[in-house]
Design a protein that fits this description.
Structural class: alpha/beta
Low-confidence stretches: 25-41
Strand content: 15-25%
Radius of gyration: 18 Å
Largest sheet: 8 strands, mixed
Number of domains: 1
Amino acid sequence: MENTEKLKEIVRQKYSEIALQNKETNQSSCCGSGCCSTEVYNIMSDDYTTIEGYNPDADLGLGCGLPTQFAKIKKGNTVIDLGSGAGNDCFVARAEAGEDGKVMGIDFTPAMIEKARANAQKLGFFNVEFRLGDIENIPVSANMADVIVSNCVLNLVPNKDNVFKEIFRVLKPGGHFSISDVVLIGHLPEALRKDAEMYAGCVAGAIQKQVYLELIKANGFSNVTIQKEKAINIPDDILKNYLNEEELNSFKKGNTGIFSITVYAEKSKSCGCGTDCCH
């Protein structure tokens, strides 16, 4: 428990710093972690700029996918973004849900909430709300959301099982999620996993892809589908901060991989009050 809270505090402090940085600074580091590279290392290679609802002031360059692109958001939907940062995915979701929809962003970093609220106010969006809260205990009532999205956030959470339980609770029966996240295939060298900067930078908190998918299924979701998958290649000058030459060569020649995946899953329509599938 103490270790979990310590990891959360590392992430909270790091993302408080990131909230004050510009997009270019964040993109040239490990998910904004500060482990600087002479190569531009931005795992968010997907381009938001042509998508309706995109707002450059809300784009901190921290994502690893485009979950809103795959989230099947309809007009009038209630959408929740977990780990909403400065609000980028929320504003894109609003363009999909329309003025009759409702979008809520949840983030546990006060500086991010402040930045997101300021962006929403500038845009005059009154159906976009940002709440301070931990996504292991989402501060909304059960059966509230039609759609949940998240972009490169769950990998930062120590107890991912709790998050999926909360997602199930908050989704309406028949609701669904689309989540972009970082996962592993094979063994990640211990030096990478242990480093606090890499933890706050999206990689060391990642778990095995198969374990990730099994967690989703174990929490009652159906129709679990990988909507997109891409490899993340960490530049040598970053890896050399953690691995010696022999370890580096072994790592690059092995079957280990770091991937961004976008996963879709549904909560059954029969998961209403009094049914066995409720959590």
